[in-house]
Amino acid sequence: xxxxxxxxxxxxxxxxxxxxxxxxxxxxxxxxxxxxxxxxxxxxxxxxxxxxxxxxxxxxxxxxxxxxxxxxxxxxxxxxxxxxxxxxxxxxxxxxxxxxxxxxxxxxxxxxxxxxxxxxxxxxxxxxxxxxxxxxxxxxxxxxxxxxxxxxxxxxxxxxxxxxxxxxxxxxxxxxxxxxxxxxxxxxxxxxxxxxxxxxxxxxxxxxxxxxxxxxxxxxxxxxxxxxxxxxxxxxxxxxxxxxxxxxxxxxxxxxxxxxxxxxxxxxxxxxxxxxx
Length: 277
Description:
Elements: H1 2-22, E1 24-25, E2 36-53, E3 56-78, E4 81-95, H2 101-111, E5 115-120, E6 126-128, H3 136-142, E7 155-156, E8 160-166, E9 179-191, E10 196-207, E11 218-231, E12 236-250, E13 258-273
Antiparallel strand pairs: 1-7, 2-3, 2-13, 3-4, 4-5, 5-6, 8-9, 9-10, 10-11, 11-12, 12-13
């Protein structure tokens, strides 16, 4: 009887595990209108470089840090997407480079109180919301808070999907580089009765090709990996962890006396959304 009882228990556990594995869900970023999502973003970047001149080589390392508290205020929604106002409440930035400290202070002041309107689509991609002074460059600054790109069809735990995304324009990676990011996402697991979804991602960066592809630096190689926790009930990312590495080269003008420069940027990023209050 005891053996029979264990067999029944194992059978039930197997059926439960099979049912959980077979469950299909739809991943969406779709917060409720009127919700205010408070977030903290911590980021550290290390940029190292080797400069080659006729007299030899020299190297340098700069470490930058940032902690930012912000709010995402859901202003409206339609079938096409959700309109969000992002407000930066406070930000603290630091650098190990004495010469860059004035620029860091200026950037800190510019970010504090910044208001950016954007539209987030159900698959997690972000675009300009419309009129109101928001530019694509402004939106690029908030993409790091919403790095998802979900499939439109329902998926099961263990399934993967791929996306190609352009690298954000500007100097977010330490130099003006252009290219695209080829990413593989995977739904790793579900918890809290399916309300929380853990999604992992791994991606490689590819340099842009064609006329005008490289402006100041040329992307050699880069990769990103991370994990996202999606609160399906709230329709938002609860937490995310990312690691980014970018290798690039630059050829300064002959008048600078520098023959070439090789750079590497390492970024670690953690975002956490607080519970409703």
